[in-house]
TrEMBL record:
Transmembrane segments: none annotated. Residues 1-22 form the signal peptide. InterPro entries: Haem_d1_sf, Host-pathogen_enzymatic-act, WD40/YVTN_repeat-like_dom_sf. This is YncE family protein. It comes from Larkinella terrae. SUPFAM superfamilies: C-terminal (heme d1) domain of cytochrome cd1-nitrite reductase (SSF51004).
Length: 386
């Protein structure tokens, strides 16, 4: 009896020790480094010919530049946009929809939709009255498309290009800004001193701002959509309007420079933008090849300094982080130091200039963020204005 008990105890201990020393499965994932998110790549997409139909400023297509590599040339994307005679048409505007993962280019006659991953043109459609500088809704679903200096804007579906409706203003439709909140769209005609404001839900004119002293050319707005800054014919400077009350507020004239003759646009100041932090207004001076900088923390804004660029500036916008200013001359200006830190050049080291450019961020081969072509302020709450 005792022997059997002892044997049972010995067997039991043997099982325990054997089990204790059995090799355990190895967790092969324990030592693996955590997965990191794909690196975000920041590119500047420059649509050409973006200065009239001049092919000498970048050819016909999209020139892509690496913002984080001193704005070096990355690649060239072929586009459509040809006239009936086979010659490239003027590029009039450029914008991005993250919802469709597409970049859109308007030309004199048509609108083309290009997939940003495959770089293929998905569709190109001509529209009644032609197409001027487009603007896309913040949700990426709707495009406001001005006819070419005619009586109306056409509202289209961003995915298909199908027409939703028309908005008749009889103002010489030209420049368009879809408000950051998605509630209003700002419609500037170059045959009117009034800025029309459309209700983005009903696609009808909700209010007007002005009158300004002359017909409106390029313009920009603050992020809270309370102020508008407009170029007008005959003025080396800009004017300010109240988007809430609809009233004209201020006229700001550039000091120390003569108006002079300009190469294009017949307008001394054609191009105005606001730094993303809304502290400064940057203004184009076509006669003197300058960009003038104004302090926008006071009202009216006060002139601070001027920057000489390599050719006539006819448009200006900013990088999304506010570090760089992008005049259409192709100069890359450090906003803080006011120094030109690079210039846009293609793969053959030719100058690239365009009034139609937009910043796009990619992650994992897909667009995840995009800037705007207008230099719109990015503060959603209105700052106190003196």
């Amino acid at each position: 009896m005792k022997t059997s008990v002892i044997l049972s105890l010995i067997c039991g201990l043997s099982v325990v020790f054997t089990t204790a020393w059995m090799p355990q499965p190895v967790d092969k994932t324990a030592d693996r480094p955590p997965k990191t998110a794909p690196k975000v790549q920041r590119y500047l997409y420059v649509a050409t010919p973006g200065v009239r139909n001049y092919l000498g400023y970048g050819g016909h297509g999209i020139q892509v530049f690496d913002i984080d590599n001193n704005h070096r040339f990355v690649k060239f994307i072929q586009t459509k946009g040809f006239q009936k005679n086979g010659k490239p048409s003027n590029v009039k505007g450029v914008d991005v929809s993250l919802a469709t993962n597409c970049i859109y280019i308007s030309t004199l006659e048509a609108l083309q939709c290009i997939d940003m991953s495959t770089e293929k043109v998905l569709w190109e459609r001509e529209y009644e009255g032609g197409v001027d500088r487009i603007s896309i809704s913040p949700d990426g679903k709707t495009i406001y498309m001005p006819s070419l200096e005619k009586e109306f804007w056409t509202v289209v579906d961003a995915k298909t290009g199908d027409v939703i409706t028309k908005i008749v203003t009889n103002s010489g439709s030209h420049n368009t800004i879809y408000g950051p909140a998605g509630k209003y769209v700002y419609l500037a005609g170059l045959k009117s001193t009034m800025l029309n404001v459309a209700d983005a839900k009903t696609h009808t004119i909700a209010k007007k701002v002005g009158p300004f002293s002359a017909d409106i050319r390029p313009f920009t707005i603050n992020g809270a959509e309370t102020l508008v800054y407009v170029n007008v014919n005959g003025l080396l400077g800009f004017e300010v309007g109240d988007l809430v009350t609809g009233k004209f507020l201020h006229r700001v004239v550039v000091e120390g420079f003569n108006i002079g003759e300009v190469k294009r646009h017949s307008c001394p100041s054609h191009g105005i933008g606001m730094t993303p932090d809304e502290k400064e207004i940057w203004l184009c001076d076509g006669a003197n090849n300058r960009v003038h900088v104004f302090d926008n923390t006071v009202m009216p804004p006060v002139q601070k300094t001027s920057i000489l660029v390599r050719d006539m500036p006819g448009w200006i916008t900013f990088s999304m982080d506010g570090k760089y200013a992008y005049p259409s001359s192709g100069d890359i200006i450090d906003v803080k130091t006011r120094k030109i830190v690079a210039t846009l050049e293609d793969q053959h080291f030719n100058q690239v200039q365009s009034e139609k450019m937009v910043e796009i961020h990619f992650s994992g081969g897909k667009a995840v963020a995009a800037g705007d072509q207008f230099g719109i302020g990015q503060l959603k709450k209105a700052a106190n204005q003196n």
